Each structure stands twice: as C-alpha cells, then as structure tokens.
C-alpha cells in the first residue's frame, strides 16, 4: 500500500513497475533482508521500473491526486479574474497585527511570491517551498519542496483545486490546494541554453481551462528584447501553443517584464516591454491586432468594461512616463481611446471601481522618490486626484474595498518601514494604517490581499508574512427573486452599506431592494446595518423594453485614425495634463511630509518622458528607478549619490577642468556600481 495516497500497488506487467529498495539514493542489489544498515543510512521504497533513478526533490508528480473544491478569496495577483476589489469591511482607522510568520526558513533574506487566499488559508512560494499557512493561526499546514528557483518573484494562481506556479527557467507546475501534491510540471519553455536567464516575474492568467504564462530574461532598466508566451492545459499541463517574441522570434518586439494578460472573451490582451499591446488568439497564439503605447508595459492589462465576447475597454500602464492608456477592442481590432499622465513612473497594475481607475506610482524620477496613488475617471480619461504617500515608489497593485462610508485603497511603498497605507477616495491625503516593529521593518514591493472577513495580508523584505485584523461585521444577503445573482456583502457593524449594482431580469425593470419578503419596506442604504439580514428585489414589467443596458461609452473621445494600425506610433496621441499632487500625507503616527507638485502643462506622449535635465542623469540613475529593494537596503547612499552627480551637469562652464575630470571619473564609478546592483541583485 502506498503511504503517499493509499493506493495498493504491486507488480505491473504492462509497465514493469514494482516496489524497489533504494539505500542512500542507489538501487539496492540485494533484497531487504540482506541489507546491512549503518547509522545515517537513508532508505526509500520507490515504485518504478528497473533502471529508474530516484526523482530529484520537488520533481515527483502524481497526476491522479484528488483536486479539492475550495472557494478562493484571492485567486491570483491583483485579485485574479475577480479584480482587486472587495466589499468586505477591511480596517479603515487602524489595523491590529493578528499574527506574523517568518518564511525565510533560517536564512538572512528570501524572495517570496505574491500571495493567494484559498479556503481561508494563505499560500506563498518562498525558500524553495510552496507553503500553505493556516489563516487563523499563522502556522504552516502543508509545505512541498519545489525543486525549482524563483530568484525574484513569481505570481501563482488558483483554479479548479490547483495552485499553479511559474518558475525561473520557463517552467510551470501545479499542486493540489489541500496537500500541495504536485500533479504536473512542464519542461522549460526557454530557448535551449538560456534557461538560467528566463525569469517568472509576469502574472499567470487562467481562462477556458488553460493557463497562459510569460517568461523573459531580465535586462536591467533597458527594454527586455525577447520572451516567450505559452498556453498549457490546466488539467494536465500539456502544451497547446508556444509563442516566442523579440530576438527569439527574429522580430522587433519585446519580452515580458512584470506583465500580465487580461482575458478577453476567448482571447488575451497583453503588453510587452517595447510598448506594444497585442490581442492574442487564445486558441492559436496568433496576433490578431496591436497598438503602440508610449513606453514599456511593466504592469498587467486590466479590463475596465467589457462584454462576454471581450469587446470593450482595457487599461494599460506605461512605466517610463507614468501614463494610463485606454484601449478599446472592437471585433478583432484594438484602438487607442485616450491617455492620461498620473505619475512620474509606474509599474502598478490598476484596479477598477465605480468607473474609476486607481493606480500607484511615484512623484519623481530622481531620489528621493515618494509613492503616489491616483484616481482617474475612465470615461473621460481625466485625472481626478493624486496624493503622495510614503517614501519610496509605490509598486503595488492597490487593493480596493467598497464600504458603506466610501471606497478605500490599500497599498505599500518600497522603503523602510515597509508598512501599509490607506487612502479613502476623495480625500486629500493618504494615511499610514500599519507600521511593523523592530526587525520586521524593511523595504516592500508587495501588494496587499484580503480574505472573506476583511483581514489583510502582505509581506515585506524582512521575510515576514503579516495578517492584519479587520472590523467585526454583519452579512447582508440578496434574494433577487428571479433576477441575476447578487453576492453577499460583509458590512461593518453599525455602518451603512454601499448599494450593490442592480440585478437584471429579462422583460422586467428593477424597482429596488426591500427588507421584507412582502416587498412593502424599501431599504434605505444610508441606514446603519445592525445585524445579519436579507434584502429582496422588487420587479415591474418592462412594457416599453427600456431595460436594455446602453452600449459601452467611449467617453466621447475620437482616437486618431492611425491608432488602429499596429505599426503606428502613439506619440501624436492627445494626453491629459500632468498630475498636480496634493502636498501632504497624514500618518496615524503624526508624521506630515510635503512634496513638490509635478508640472500641470498638457503634453504629447512623446513629451511625457522626463525633461532634458533629468535625462542628463538617466544613464546613471535610470536603473536605480527599478533597483531592487535589497540593493537599496545594502547601499542606502546610492540614490542621493546619483542625484548629486546629476546636479553637477548644470554647473558653470568656468569649473576647474581637473575638477570636472574628477567628477566624470566619479560618475563612471557610480554607474559601474549601479550596473553591479541591477544585474546581480535586481528585483524590480
């Protein structure tokens, strides 16, 4: 009987497999009764045919392992297909540390994946293991060695009872969500000889029973020049198609760096590091259409408002200029529909809520850099608000929580102390919601995730996973009385709830929500919720057929005729004015900081790149914009050193030539230092 899964296994004539004895990793040449064991010997029984070797740690798969049916509160990066928006009562005034978990496994530092929340537990990949952490206690429930590398980050996804993980070297593997049994693992999709270069930093997308993944070699702050996009079966990991890009395909396209594809009907929309946003046929991997935006897309593409067939509007962020682009799909064609500058630079995947895009970034290309969070009206592509938060670029995808008293965004900034910021949409300032203590303070690239109860989870570079407790709440369920389903809301006790989107019912008009089954007491959504309750939908007959939903609004924008051409440039595109930041950030710890606003002048996309005086130092500090948090941690003077070097470019021409030569030598030396940090230790 197999101790692995309880199956009864014996001699299999068809495959030649039987239980073999291995001692110290080698097949025994004698039977078990004839083996003389010594202290320290290891013994293993392995069900295999003659000549088989023991699998490497993490390479064992069991394709027949049962796949559990578990609900996912957070199935993937930026909320997976559900989007990064919840309606649970997340902490709004302060957050308590419920528990902490050290995932470094005794090391001084460890990389960690983005987090999943499935079945009430938290999943992460760190220290060479995939780990399931009990959501109530913070204790490991199950761990499995991966046998693979993740040098920087990876972004797992949950679907159909499986946790799917991408690994460096261009590999994918799937594990059961309960026992973390590996059910399949692919071979490397990287070009032969390049396996060690290809990294797994892009998001995974699951659609129609397939997993879509992207891998590329990192290239510092320069555009990634090659990559591979793959489609494999979620069920067994078999390959459906492989699409190579850039030099790997002998074409002038880029690779994928922190990219993420949005499912669009049966297809995908993805941005690359050369600024091309492409519509990819989900069945074949063929490119159907593309548009060019103003810089590298180092963030996920997000659906703003789409039909089941995938038509509608999508959002893309470009890193080099901090611009949000709206792209519309009409049939099998993509068109640029508008753009707005919101930040100096950004690698943040936006969240969509109530017709707004919420996205993070930074207020400067030079150190010191401060994180920002911005709110953009998607219909008009206008910037409504940008506020400065803490020190360090905000590279997280914001978590959005819709509550009775407003909409809240949660995010992090990549600097010490590595805590959590909270911003209420419409406010003039962000607040620091949680600050780690002592040696748990460190840099932070992470995005925050939430569970069904509104608890928050995140990690920082101290090697700690944090759980922050939420407010007590009541459950409000909705009986739609024949209409489309409406999800249950969790509402903070004693607070009003946000009105949900109206349900639909063919041939009927929705007349409102009522607190009684007889439909006599209309519910007032400004009223506090004082207990668990059910609301009931009331309907009237739609005699005039006026209940049809209007078509998607393009916001009245008329994109240039060249935008439908995949070879056209976006430089002539009209762009809304640069943001003017609110100048304060209020911390619950009493810290107030002031920042200088960016220019408010309307610019073309070509002019959205940094000004010429900033370009003078870009050769030195460009890589620093994306430099790893660990590099910053080990060399805190790097940023200020580059700012100083850049400032010397505007010095008077009467400077002593020997002094100028000395400065030049120093600049070259500093550039060399940064090359080392970016190449050797880069995480961003």
From TrEMBL:
<dbReference type="GO" id="GO:0030313">
    <property type="term" value="C:cell envelope"/>
</dbReference>
<feature type="compositionally biased region" description="Low complexity">
    <location>
        <begin position="560"/>
        <end position="582"/>
    </location>
</feature>
<feature type="transmembrane region" description="Helical">
    <location>
        <begin position="658"/>
        <end position="679"/>
    </location>
</feature>
<feature type="domain" description="Transcobalamin-like C-terminal">
    <location>
        <begin position="12"/>
        <end position="48"/>
    </location>
</feature>
<dbReference type="InterPro" id="IPR013378">
    <property type="entry name" value="InlB-like_B-rpt"/>
</dbReference>
<feature type="region of interest" description="Disordered">
    <location>
        <begin position="540"/>
        <end position="582"/>
    </location>
</feature>
<keyword id="KW-1133">Transmembrane helix</keyword>
<keyword id="KW-0812">Transmembrane</keyword>
<dbReference type="Pfam" id="PF14478">
    <property type="entry name" value="DUF4430"/>
</dbReference>
<feature type="domain" description="Pyrrolo-quinoline quinone repeat">
    <location>
        <begin position="127"/>
        <end position="297"/>
    </location>
</feature>
<dbReference type="InterPro" id="IPR015943">
    <property type="entry name" value="WD40/YVTN_repeat-like_dom_sf"/>
</dbReference>
<dbReference type="Pfam" id="PF09479">
    <property type="entry name" value="Flg_new"/>
</dbReference>
<dbReference type="InterPro" id="IPR011047">
    <property type="entry name" value="Quinoprotein_ADH-like_sf"/>
</dbReference>
<dbReference type="InterPro" id="IPR027954">
    <property type="entry name" value="Transcobalamin-like_C"/>
</dbReference>
<dbReference type="InterPro" id="IPR042229">
    <property type="entry name" value="Listeria/Bacterioides_rpt_sf"/>
</dbReference>
<dbReference type="InterPro" id="IPR002372">
    <property type="entry name" value="PQQ_rpt_dom"/>
</dbReference>
<protein>
    <submittedName>
        <fullName>Uncharacterized protein</fullName>
    </submittedName>
</protein>
<dbReference type="Pfam" id="PF13360">
    <property type="entry name" value="PQQ_2"/>
</dbReference>
<keyword id="KW-0472">Membrane</keyword>
